[in-house]
């Protein structure tokens, strides 16, 4: 009987699963409605992954790593950036060019975060933490009550907020909308 995966094995497997989803997005044509379904699946997977990291990995990193505050802070900032992109995608039509631009930014942000995390935090924890501790945290994470469909917003939006209705508007148009009406002519 083989050994159970530990916390880092599970988190790496989740990174790989998310990379596969990014590949699914890459083969769908831009503007294809099916991209919405893949992004919705990605949202749940990424948010659950981030919740597991914040509940299990980050406390372990704070205890184990000398430069933990900086490393964990960078990781949490990356989480917030990805969550913001996911929230923006939730408000954007899948056939909009803005959707495709947001997807490209999401892939770039997430891939950079995964690479940095795997090279620094995961590698250092693997060498500094006893295997039994990692195995136990892996068991806890697998049993944890982490919802599989978390969203970066409190509830799915009922309506698009006015400031997100037209992402294609020029910056000048958005600024004019914020200013009081001027004198005619």
What does this structure look like?
There is one protein chain. With 185 residues, this protein is mostly helical. It has one domain (7-146, 161-178): nmb1532 protein domain like (Four Helix Bundle (Hemerythrin (Met), subunit A)). Helix content is 69%, strand content 0%. The chain has six helices and no strands. It has helices spanning 7-27, 34-64, 68-90, 97-128, 131-143, 171-178. Helix 2 (34-64) packs parallel to helix 4 (97-128) and helix 3 (68-90) packs antiparallel against helix 4. 23% of the residues are buried. Mean pLDDT is 84; it is low at 153-157.
Q: What about the largest sheet?
A: none
User: Structural class per helix/strand content?
Assistant: mainly alpha
Order of helices and strands: HHHHHH
Q: Could you say what the CATH architecture is?
A: Up-down Bundle
CATH-defined superfamily? nmb1532 protein domain like
Mean pLDDT: 84
- Total of domains: 1
Number of helices: 6
Which residue ranges are poorly predicted, with pLDDT under 50 across at least 5 consecutive positions?
153-157
Content of β-strand? under 5%
The helicity comes to: 55-70%
Structural shape: globular
Oligomeric form: single chain
CATH class: Mainly Alpha
Task: Provide the fold topology.
Blueprint: H1 7-27, H2 34-64, H3 68-90, H4 97-128, H5 131-143, H6 171-178
Helix pairs in contact: 1-2, 1-4, 1-5, 2-3, 2-4, 3-4
Attribute tags:
single chain; 185 residues; mainly alpha; Four Helix Bundle (Hemerythrin (Met), subunit A); 6 helices; 0% strand
Sum this structure up briefly.
The chain has one domain (7-146, 161-178): nmb1532 protein domain like (Four Helix Bundle (Hemerythrin (Met), subunit A)).
